[in-house]
Every structure is written in C-alpha cells, then in structure tokens.
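Entry, Tuesday afternoon. Goal for today is a structural model of the target with guanosine-5'-triphosphate bound, before we commit to ordering more compound. Inputs were pasted exactly as handed over by J.K., no edits. I checked the ligand SMILES twice against the vendor sheet because last time a stereocentre got dropped in transcription.
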Amino acid sequence: MKRPKLKKASKRLSCAKRYKIQKKVREHNRKLRKEAKKKGVGKRVKKDPGVPSSAPFKEEVLREAEQRRLQEEKQRKRQAKIDERAQKRKKEKEAASKETEPKAKKARQVIDASDVVIEVLDARDPQGCRCPQLEEAVLQRSGNKKLLFVLNKIDLVPKENVERWIQCLQKEFPVLAFKASTQIQDKTVKRRIVASNEVLDRSRGAACFGNSCLTELLTSYAAKTETEASLRVGIVGFPNVGKSSLVNSMKGILACNAGVKRGITKSMQEVHILKNVKLIDSPGVVASPSNPPASMALRSLQVEEGQESVLEAVRTLLKQCDKTQIMLQYNIPDFRNSLEFLTLFAKKRGYLQKGGVANTEQAASVFLADWTGAKLSYHCKAPENNSLPSYLSDAVVAEMQSGWDLTKLKMGNEETLRGVKFPNQASSISFVSKGPTAGLLNVNDITEEKPVAKATERETVQTDEVQFQSVPIDINLAAATSDDAYDFNTDFK
Ligand SMILES: Nc1nc2c(ncn2[C@@H]2O[C@H](COP(=O)(O)OP(=O)(O)OP(=O)(O)O)[C@@H](O)[C@H]2O)c(=O)[nH]1
Ligand SMILES: [Mg+2]
C-alpha cells in the first residue's frame, strides 16, 4: 500500500500472510523429507571425526585405516569384474542359443582354418558318424588339406568289431583307433594318465590310448610340411562323438569343456598341444532334418533344443535293436513298447515323481545319454565290401593316404588294441546303422532343406512303422499316460 508523501510502497507483509507463507514452506519441506525417506535416502552420513593428534599410536591407526580402505576398494573392483564377466557370459550364451545359421557355418570355418581335418567317429556306429558333406567339403578346399578318421570310444565296442571297422574305413582315409580319457578334471596341472598306472586305471575311464600315436603322426607330418607356422588340425564330427575329450586327452589337461550333454562346445577353440601343432576343437556338425529318425535321435541336437520329445527319440532307438539284448543290458523284464520299457527302467533306477509315479522323461533322457555318452556298449556290423562314395576316387584315396607314416599308424593301432579293455560280444548290443548322416554346412542348406526334410522325415517314419509295426499308429508318447488306451503289441513284434 502506498502511503502519502512516501516514494515507495512498504514491503511489510501482513502477519496473516507471513504466517501463511511460513506454513506453506514447512509443509513443502516436510513433503520433501517424506519422499527422501521413501526413496531410501538415509540420514546424512556422519563425518569421520578422524584421529585426534593427541591419540597414542596415531600413525599406526591411520595406516591400518588406509589399508582397510584399499582392501575394500580391491574387493569392490574384483566383484565388479566378476559381475561383468558373468554378464558377458550370459550375453554370449543368449547369442549362441539364438543363432542357428552360424552353427552350420562353423564346420566350414574349421575346415578353412585347418591344414589337417580329423573327423572323429564314435566306434559304436562309425558309418553313422560320417558326414559326406563334410568330407566332400574337405576334398574340394584348395591347399591340399588332409582328412583323417579317428575311431574314438573303442573301449565300448568288441575288439573284433573295431578291427573290422579299421580295415573297412582305411580303404578310404587313414584311420586311428583312440580311447579318450574321460576323467580329466584339472584345468591347470598337466597329469599324463598312464595306462599301466594301476591306481589311476582302476576305473578304466582315466586311461587314454592312441594319443602317443596321433602325436607322432602329426609331428612327423608337421615336419614334412616345411612351413614356419604351426600345423593346424581341425577336430570335426557330430555332437558327442568325443571331439573335446580327444583334445583334452592330447593336451593332458581339461582344455575344452566335455560332457554327456550334447552340444557342449559352442565355438571354435584353439589348443596348442606341441610347439608346432595346434588342435582346433569345434562344435558338432548340424545334422540335416532329412536324415532317418534313428540317425537324428543319435546325432542331432533336436532333443536338447526341444524340437523333439525324448520319449519319441527313445522309441525310435529301441526299434533299431534287439529287445532281448536291451532287457539283458538294463536288467529289466519283458516289455511291450517303449513307454513300458521306460516305466520299468525308471522304477529300476528310482526315477520317481510325486506319489511314486515313474518319471519316464528322466528315464528317457538317461537312456539317450547312455547311447551317446561314455557308458553303453553297442556295435554295428562293418560292411564286407564297401564301395567308394561318389566324391571319392582311387586317385583321391591315394592322395589322402600319402604324406602319412602308415606303418607307424598301423603299429600304433596294434598297440592301442593291445592296451584297451574291450567288452565281449555277448554283452554288447547289436545295432543297425542307418548309414552316413547328412550334415548342414551351408547357411542356405538350412532354409532350402527344411521343407523337403519334413516330407522325407514323415516318409521315413511311415516306412519304419510298416517295418516294425503290424498296424501304423500315431501315438504321442509325450502325452500318453499309463491308462492311455492303445494297442501295446504294436510297438514290438
Ligand atoms: N567310454 C568313452 N567315453 C568317451 C570317450 N571319448 C569321449 N567320451 C565321452 O563322450 C561324451 C562326449 O564327449 P565330448 O568330448 O564332450 O564330445 P564332443 O564331441 O566334444 O561333444 P560336443 O561338444 O557336444 O559336440 C563324454 O561323456 C565323454 O566322457 C572314449 O574314448 N571312451
Ligand atoms: Mg565338444
């Protein structure tokens, strides 16, 4: 209000207005405090009073405090690094599970990166582990690449069978018999496991055979190549044939992750085994969906990726073998179909769900793991006179055999066969191989082959059913329960 005779109006407020403003400010501050409390912002941290100058041992106390601070900082940094690495691993895992195309590419990458390609074959079904596309790709690549077969897991096959397979396969490529060590657990300490060491060899799995022969072969080949760079040896093959175990056995330490689960190796990994030789471990070759269901059950990652039920895979496998041998191997009574087999197997092993119901899914996973893992002994008959595949000619065979010290290889194989403890024929299941398994090496194959594959697969399933069943039926075993009404006699003759 402007008073007369004065230039400026007074700034004085009326008391009511002043009190009103003060009240508003109080309310506002209270609101801020309340919000801060809600967010968890605590009270102001008390200032460190420090060490008074008059305190005795002031220097020591300060030094101790400084050390504690440094230690805490170190701990924080370490934790941050661990978190960062975990995050990175998680991202890589997610990326690997998403990408399907590069998986097919990786086999080609390994071939391109190698001077020598080792195709690892499971001795229980060597023909089934061969991938014609991969072999052809090696032969087509420039640079005089060599292909070598390694017959792994020979300890799970009768001796005569291994010998026959070596004779059969060496008509095409040089073959080396191998038994990888399945008990290398140490990532740092190199502990060569010697076969004659009775203490270590008690469990059979620890010993490794064929590694010295392979080392000698590769070193002598590396010496012949006259290049300064080390010899690159690509290890390829279908999942679970023992590629990583072979690398570990050659190195003597756990250099690559290996295990019963299929598809453990997700990327290429280089491992120096000698000064001039390095091995390249690789993920398993992707099996084409056009393969017969039995080959897919053993070689593909369909079950792991959830594209096929384990029960269906077991059903397919059981059809390929003799029922009596399965009964003897698993020590279970007669069964009429795969579901009954799995129920008996689950009860025998104690795989039970709530209420004592047999967990057939778990039983099926264990059964499948037996067939590709390190335990079950089964074998396929080697063909008497096998003709060369279309991509091989006598000249190519001679070229592939040249450069290797074949007498040394023969002697090495004989020594390996003398050392390994083989199962006898009677305790090994005889299995009917479905022949070489087609693999996907090109990204284009995946998109091109899928529709055709589906049709072929259906056809194959149908022919299987005609062969093994009196009436073709379509049973979804995954959904079947114990009281599902279907003809039990249709599965087995
Ligand atoms: N009994 C026996 N088991 C073996 C032998 N070699 C490998 N295994 C087992 O076979 C399983 C598969 O071995 P891996 O070395 O992981 O096979 P991989 O080919 O690298 O498999 P992916 O990385 O999934 O492609 C493991 O359980 C090994 O213990 C062998 O010579 N004898
Ligand atoms: Mg591996």
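The pocket of guanosine-5'-triphosphate (ligand 1) is lined by residues 152-153, 155-156, 179-180, 182, 239-245, 258-260, 262-265, 283-284, 373-374 (CB under 6 Å).
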